[in-house]
Amino acid sequence: MKKTISTLVIAGLSVFAFSASAQKLAHINLDSLLRSMPESDSARRVGQAHYQMLESEVESMNKEYQQKVQDYQAHQAGYTELIKNEKQKEIQDMGQRIQEFQGSAQSDLQKFNDSITRPIINKAKKAVKEVAQEKHYTYVFDVSSGVVLYSEDSDDIFAMVAEKLGIKPSVKKSSK
After folding, report:
1. What is the Cβ-side half-sphere exposure of residue 113, based on CA atoms within 13 angstroms?
2. Are 125 and 77 in contact (CB under 8 A)?
3. How confident is the model at residue 154 (pLDDT cuts 50, 70, 90)?
4. How many alpha carbons lie under 13 Å from residue 117 in its C-beta half-sphere?
5. Backbone angles phi, psi at 96, to 5 degrees
6. The dihedral of CA 76, 82, 83, 87: what is its sign?
7. pTM across the whole model
8. Most confident by average pLDDT, 11-15, 109-113, 161-165
């Protein structure tokens, strides 16, 4: 009798432990969600305009540089050694400034794009968290990052999160 009760207790605890450890999983393609958000289009346009402004400045600097090089090459025969050295130094300094500007512009562009996309990403993540909490998901995997190499079936919460954000996706955006 004692053995039967022990066996039942152990079996009951095993079932309880198994059910307590069962976790509800979901996945979403966060990249697709972000592309579906209207804010992403305006952020892309603003980022592109910023890029074009920086690119225009680089092109202007390069034109000025090329003009100085051509001017030097056309007139170098008539320059004294002192003027040649000064013109060469000018051209080298300008080339250096262009390289420095390009590096700074690239860094500036990255920071600018981060500043305009961060609020959009945070909004999407907040909606994912809200849906996960409402639907009692333990884990939500972002399948767009490629981090999940294998998983058992899980619920795709793309449509629920899109609805939470007020987005009407025309096709299913998330896939494993």
Report:
1. 13
2. no
3. confident
4. 15
5. -65, -45
6. positive
7. 0.67
8. 109-113
